[in-house]
Amino acid sequence: MSESEIDTSAGTLYMVATPIGNLGDLSRRAEDILKSVQIIAAEDTRRSALLLDHIAHRAPELVSYHEHNRVERTQRLLTRLLEGDDVALVSDAGTPLINDPGADLVAAAFDAGIYVVPVPGPSAVTAALSVCPFPSFPFRFVGFLPPKSRQRREVLRTYLADTDALIFFEAPHRIAATIKDLAELTTRKVMLGRELTKRFETLTVMDADKLSSDSVEARGEFVIVVGCDLDAKPDVTRYEDRKVLGVLLEHLSPAHAAKCGAVICDRKRGDMYEMALQINADRGK
């Protein structure tokens, strides 16, 4: 956005990174911004209230902004910004928009000529990469994997067909199943980061095929890094298969798209059907 496109009478939208665990990681600039704005929009107001207590600040207005109310709250916050109020958006932890809500608000602010300012800081993604002892660049951040086993394995197969490192989040109740999938699907190096920056932070590094449910305690939040495959060449056929199915699914049901795709790509219909379901899931269908 150029200076000529900015509405100088409007407030500023600040995207404020907050600690992923250790409250001491909040930057001085982030603290100053949180204390200066008229509204703090938080993914979870209870967690943000703890952070505000830490910096001895009572926000003039603390409102929730999450996946379930983002449409209504985007309009409300946009109105306040246009009236001249400054707004800080924070997620549960880390940097906003990194697997967290807020994209709608940022897009609406840009469209309205509102100045959007990043206030960088903690991120579970960069925290994990900064202590990774094996090659992890270039990398692909994939957020959370699908919770269902079949879809999760299909997504992992697709990403592992490329040579880039992978980084994703996982919940404690699914970590054992995800570890099992990785052990069966790849031999790459893997780092399991548990409770990063918190009291019980642990880092576990080993070859994926040696992983087991005994490798790590299934408590707390996980960041998983799968190393680059430096020797292999990308398997482009999987991406071509997905491209073919993607086009077919614009016009056909998953079953019919899989049937046609299996003939076109010379693959098993069952594999194509699983891929079709995942593509539709990725598209929100």
Q: How confident overall, as mean pLDDT?
A: 92
CATH architecture of the largest domain: 3-Layer(aba) Sandwich
SS strand fraction: 15-25%
Percentage of residues in helical conformation: 25-40%
Strand order of the largest sheet: 3-2-4-1-5
Assigned CATH class of the largest domain: Alpha Beta
Based on secondary structure, the structural category is alpha/beta
**Major beta sheet, specifics?**
5 strands, parallel
Shape: globular
Number of helices: 10
Termini separation: 33 Å
Low-confidence stretches: none
Strands, total number = 10
The CATH homology group name of the largest domain: Tetrapyrrole methylase, N-terminal domain
Order of helices and strands: EHEHEHEHEHEHEHEEEHHH
Radius of gyration: 22 Å
The overall number of domains is 3
Task: Please state the oligomeric state of the protein chains shown.
Answer: single chain
* CATH-defined topology of the largest domain: Cobalt-precorrin-4 Transmethylase, domain 1
Keywords:
3 domains, alpha/beta, 10 strands, 5-stranded mixed beta sheet, Methyltransferase, Cobalt-precorrin-4 Transmethylase, Domain 2, 5-stranded parallel beta sheet, globular, Cobalt-precorrin-4 Transmethylase, domain 1, 285 residues, 10 helices
Task: Describe it.
The protein is an alpha/beta fold. The chain folds into 3 domains: 7-122, 3-Layer(aba) Sandwich (Cobalt-precorrin-4 Transmethylase, domain 1), CATH 3.40.1010; 125-226, 2-Layer Sandwich (Methyltransferase, Cobalt-precorrin-4 Transmethylase, Domain 2), CATH 3.30.950; 236-282. Helices cover 39% and strands 18% of the residues. The chain contains 10 helices and 10 strands. It has helices at 28-36, 45-54, 70-82, 103-111, 124-130, 149-160, 175-185, 236-248, 254-265, 269-282; strands at residues 12-16, 39-42, 62-64, 87-90, 115-119, 139-144, 165-170, 189-194, 202-207, 222-226. A 5-stranded parallel beta sheet has the order 3-2-4-1-5, sandwiched between helices. A 5-stranded mixed beta sheet has the order 6-7-10-8-9, with helices on both faces. Strand 6 (139-144), helix 6 and strand 7 form a beta-alpha-beta unit. Helix 6 crosses helix 7 and helix 6 packs across helix 10 (269-282). The protein is globular. The relative contact order is 0.12. The model has no long low-confidence stretch (mean pLDDT 92).
